[in-house]
Amino acid sequence: MSTKAADVVVIGAGIVGAACAWEFAREGMSVTLIDSGAPGGGATAAGMGHVAVMDDSEPQFALTRYSQQLWREIVDELPDDCEYETCGTLWIAADDEELAEVRRKQQAYTRRGIDAEVLDAAALARAEPNLRSGLAGALRVPGDLVVFPPCVARWLIAGATECGAQVRLGTAAVEISDRGVRLADDSLLPAGAIINATGHGAERLTPGLSLQPRKGHLAITDRYPGFIHHELIELGYLKSAAAVGTDSAAMNVQPRITGQMLIGSSRQTGQESTDVDMAILGRMLRRAMEYLPALARVSTIRTWTGFRAATADKLPLIGRCSSGQRSSQGRLYLATGHEGLGITMAPGTARLLVDAVMGRESAIPPEPYLPARLEKGDSA
Amino acid sequence: MARNEHYDVLIVGGGPAGIAAACCAARAGRRVAIVDDNPAQGGQIWRGMTEEWTAATQSPLAASWLRRLREAKVEVLAGTQIVARPRDGVLLAETDADACLLAYDKLILAAGARERFLPFPGWTLPGVTGAGGLQSLVKSGLPIAGRRVAVAGSGPVLLAVADCLRDHGAEICLIAEQAPWPRLVRFGCGLIGSPGKLLQGAGYKWRLKTVRYRTGCWPVAAEGDGKLSSVTFHAGSKTRTVACDYLACGFGFVPSLELPTLLDCRLDGGAVWIDDWQETSVQGIYAAGETTGVGGVDLALIEGQIAGYAAIDCQDHAARLFRARERGRRFVGALDRAFALREELKSLATAETPVCRCEDVSRQQLEAYGSWREAKLQTRCGMGPCQGRVCGTAAEFLFDWQRESIRPPIFPADVGTLAEIRPLGKQPGK
Ligand SMILES: Cc1cc2nc3c(=O)[nH]c(=O)nc-3n(C[C@H](O)[C@H](O)[C@H](O)COP(=O)(O)OP(=O)(O)OC[C@H]3O[C@@H](n4cnc5c(N)ncnc54)[C@H](O)[C@@H]3O)c2cc1C
Ligand SMILES: Cc1cc2nc3c(=O)[nH]c(=O)nc-3n(C[C@H](O)[C@H](O)[C@H](O)COP(=O)(O)OP(=O)(O)OC[C@H]3O[C@@H](n4cnc5c(N)ncnc54)[C@H](O)[C@@H]3O)c2cc1C
Which residue of A219, A273, A353, B339 has the lowest C-beta tally within 10 Å? Predict the structure, then answer.
């Protein structure tokens, strides 16, 4: 095989690595994409595929909104198996206190140009008749969409290949050094720039990132078209997603274009096994049934788990990596740490990296996501 | 909350292996139960048989075991399907009405095998069924009298199925066995060591003597407009078309490994690994019958008894059956060699033939990928309600693909069951 240096070697063919390979290849750069397994077979095969604008912090909002705009540019080209649909999100308020928060969110969204409306109890009941009665209302964000991530990853990779990218599957990267990326078969891929997009396992190649794997459970049902119409998420999900160190389960139920429902979601830290944990699964399903009682007799056909890569400040690591600088001479870039938003943020992440490598200005300020912010914190 | 029960010995599967195990374990006041997902007991072969009926017909063996089962005071939880393991020593089960948690000290897995179905053009037409599948349908009331049935695939089970269907009035137009005649002759000579089998085989042959039995013959296409009207078979160097209303088709059996896999039992060569006492690699969990390798009813009965005795520490009783088990296993080895599937069957499915019926995925779509997992993620193959029970088994044979890990529920189960709360409620419309 040729040892001519590629402009960019992307390690990891999940949704993030696939998006990076596609963007770099479209810029006319020579790209090699490698993955130890099947494309989109990691967290990308486990995630719900909800592409949502989120406002936990200003940078989170900026990157999710930017990314959702980029998603909109490609969705019409996606083949059917990518299961794209704009179902919108309902953030459900159980009581008046949560409804007050819904009102605050509504203003924050509209102020920044995102469509959002408040549904009162009656409007919510009309919109989603299978929700239990007695809920206070909801925030409706109509522009949020869903996709089937592994097929999108495949489609992005095919696009990259059309622009000349090379893809090597089935061989792991074992080391990133000043000479390039060394693979498990001992071959060496020299590279101008190296992107570590290996998800929650990124520390195996780049130690010292302090990523915390957070395990999640999901269940998929048989087909019940029309059972729900929006992705339904309890407002408390935001607390559950933000809480660090405790196990949590919040109601998050998504309608698929197939008529199936995806039921989530849980968060657990300190777990390594990929096995389904029946205790937390049961808790998660009971929570979903508290909101949607008729789920009790809905048939579940499979459950599974996946890991989200969490960082200390709940923002991803995107940009040049300084801790690996010595051995890789400043050519190493990171694209990981997206926690529960990697599907959403993949297109924005790829653009930020292309800009960084090419020395261009980005559409949104890149600083909040630069890996250096957490490294500094460590040494201080 | 879900109902709770505790058993000294719990047996999953109410076929011959499970019945034999239960009869042997139900001694000295032990609480023993059999769980079976079918509403009628008996497993595949004795399904729905009653003691009186079997005694009056040619099934004295079934009659005697069903009587022993009644006398042993074993609880039979029919229509109860094991779906998950919430924690060690407890299984979660679902019935039509509720969910229940079944705790055990010892567990015996006797969940049998299922038929291997291989895709060929037209296999999804109404009228094309599994061989055992059609037998079950007929036993539970499907009218078959006067209908023309072709039985195809491989193994002695084809004779059993044909015999049963004929008993119910079907007109058997052909039995197509894929194995070549010379292999069967060699096998027939080897049978002298197993007199019981020989008689059984001869009995079927006698009753089926007017039926055409062709070896080296297999279906290449099923035809019909909306439903089956004829089947084209490969026979010798020619093809021939046979008009029929049903094609009952089965290419041997594969052990049901979902539950043992979920329980972390070690597998060996496509079956559950067991020691001399039928104990699996997990202490306190035993396996008997087809889960340990497809061996037929005689071997299932012997293994069931050994497992039942061993589970209650009656090793001396169990050890007395070792020689009979050895004979049974030799027979199975010969059977496997005689009825091994031929390579030609791998090319029955054309590019457009659906392999996964739940998600409508063709052979050609699958061939673009290098592994079961990749194909599944990209095409949804195996993601439907049957979770790859049919297409995964076929893909294993067609492409040598290994299937991925087992996840709960091992059968589709209600959200309320997995949540371990299941008040009665209406099923929402699909
Ligand atoms: C339960 C759950 C629900 C989720 N729901 C959503 C959602 O609704 N919306 C959303 O936006 N996000 C969601 N997420 C998060 C999302 O799934 C992830 O953030 C995203 O998939 C991360 O993609 P990735 O490409 O970074 O990682 P991965 O998909 O894990 O890809 C990493 C790839 O790197 C490869 N790899 C690893 N090590 C090596 C090596 N040494 N050499 C070569 N290759 C290697 C792996 O094989 C893998 O293919 C969810 C996550 C979970 C767990
Ligand atoms: C479709 C089919 C048809 C057959 N027809 C014949 C025939 O006509 N003649 C013949 O000699 N041999 C036949 N055999 C072979 C014969 O049944 C076996 O050789 C013998 O019955 C093996 O007994 P077993 O107890 O291991 O399995 P089985 O008799 O298959 O019994 C297993 C039982 O366990 C139940 N079960 C499985 N999983 C679960 C679960 N998770 N929860 C609850 N219950 C569960 C099943 O519904 C089944 O009733 C047939 C086999 C099959 C699969």
Answer: A273
